[in-house]
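Write out the 3D structure for:
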Amino acid sequence: MLVIKKAQIEKFIAEDDTQLVRVLRDIVREAFHEGVAEYSDDTIDGMVKIGIERAKSRGFELAPEIAAFVAIMFEISPDFDQQEQIDAFLKDETMPKEIRMEQLLGRLQDDSWADAEKRYDPKAWFPDPAA
């Protein structure tokens, strides 16, 4: 009998970016309704795709990690991971990658998050294709 572990299932889901984009779009629409109400599904899909790529560039592979990363992008700032302490935390290889995302919110000081939120740049969602 073939046994597929939960982590393997999540990996399969994460590899299917089309499905993941749709799921995250629905989550974003529900959780951040006021901030995205004016955007079409295609626009939100583009924003989510940017988030997925950014999460993957940080080494996150599983759907729950990617979803958490994208949610923080919508909640705090699309460039939240560029804030100095957050960036250092995400690069900290002494902490296992598998728990880094779940530890992120609880382990950093509020001022790190406030600083990341202050730097909010909506243009990060809509990069200039000519650049």
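The CA atoms of residues 92 and 98 lie 12 Å apart.
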